[in-house]
Amino acid sequence: MMVSRNESSVKEFTLSGLSSSYELHIICFVFFLVLYLMTLLGNLAIIIIVYIDSHLRSPMYFFLSNLSLLDQCYSSVTIPKMLINILSDRKTISFNQCIFQLFFLHLFGGAECFLLTAMGYDRYVAICNPLRYHTVMNHRFCFWLVTFSWFAGFLHSCTQAWLIYQLPFCGPNKINYFFCDVHPLTVLACADTYFIDMSIIANSGMISLTCFVILLFSYLGIIATILKIRSSEGRRKAFSTCASHILVVTFFFGSCLFFYARPPVNYPADKLISILYTMFIPLLNPIIYTLRNQEVKNAVKKFSRSKFPAPPCGITVSLAVRRRLNGTLVTQAN
């Protein structure tokens, strides 16, 4: 029997901690804080570099800057609250805050899912139909792809938040997780959640699976085209333009399918994988795209030289001569 939302007695939830050891809490706090700051700074650097460098005005880098923005927002939904709870004795979150956290988590996660699919299509057109690339992937079309990604993520998050909000929670109120998500909350509901569970799987799982299948067919076409290239150097260059995106897609969709395309059962590996897709995957974006992309690396070097220029040659020589004269005077004085 379904209990109405107003009859729920739970006003706040207790989030699961990492360990009972205070020393381990301090280590985890410092480690996660460093990762979070690296994520923010790394993704912010990509956004700035793509914006100021005229050589990075192609659709691929337009999508990349939006992906960096999503990764910043995605990690900021959960990590600050988790850092506070690590050092706090009361690891609690109110019901409304929990729903808002769930809403924005699925908003940015869903938008990223669709954006990665759009990036896969961009690579498909660039490699399989290069002569029509700029005609197909024009600025207007890219803008609408990004807008659709955000709008689809918004609809997805509204559905997930509404499904959870209507559930009654009468106790217990301990979430066996670091943040609020759909499956850890449904197991706490004091009502039959079979229909809600199936709706969540149908919504999240089908979105992840559909985007993954589209990406799979895109890359099958890309691989077939690359294999037709006769020169090994040409094949290497063609594959290198997709390698970074393949790595990001593999980690992101792998974790999404693991969590949302299955029944709401808690597994021992859930906490570890939740750290992977909320902390490490947003950090992978700036690392992978800067280490594997020569254009981004050149833009970073150019930006570094413009902000931190080397001293003029004349000043360097005069300083060296002055040091040598000072050393000679000291020697003579001795």
Could you explain the architecture of this structure?
This protein is an all-alpha fold and 334 residues long. It has a single domain, classed as Up-down Bundle (Rhopdopsin 7-helix transmembrane proteins), CATH 1.20.1070.10. The longest helix is centred in the middle third of the chain and has 34 residues. It is globular and about 65 Å long.
Beta percentage is under 5%
In percent, how helical is the residue content? over 70%
Rg from alpha-carbon coordinates? 25 Å
Number of strands: 3
Number of domains: 1
CATH class: Mainly Alpha
What strand order characterises the main sheet?
2-1-3
Number of helices: 11
Shape: globular
Kindly summarize this structure in a few lines.
The protein is mainly α and 334 residues long. 75% of the residues lie in helices and 3% in strands. The protein has a single domain (5-292), classed as Up-down Bundle (Rhopdopsin 7-helix transmembrane proteins), CATH 1.20.1070.10.
Task: Indicate the topology.
Blueprint: E1 12-15, H1 22-52, H2 59-86, E2 92-94, H3 95-128, H4 133-136, H5 139-165, E3 174-175, H6 182-186, H7 194-227, H8 232-260, H9 270-291, H10 294-307, H11 313-333
Parallel strand pairs: 1-3
Antiparallel strand pairs: 1-2
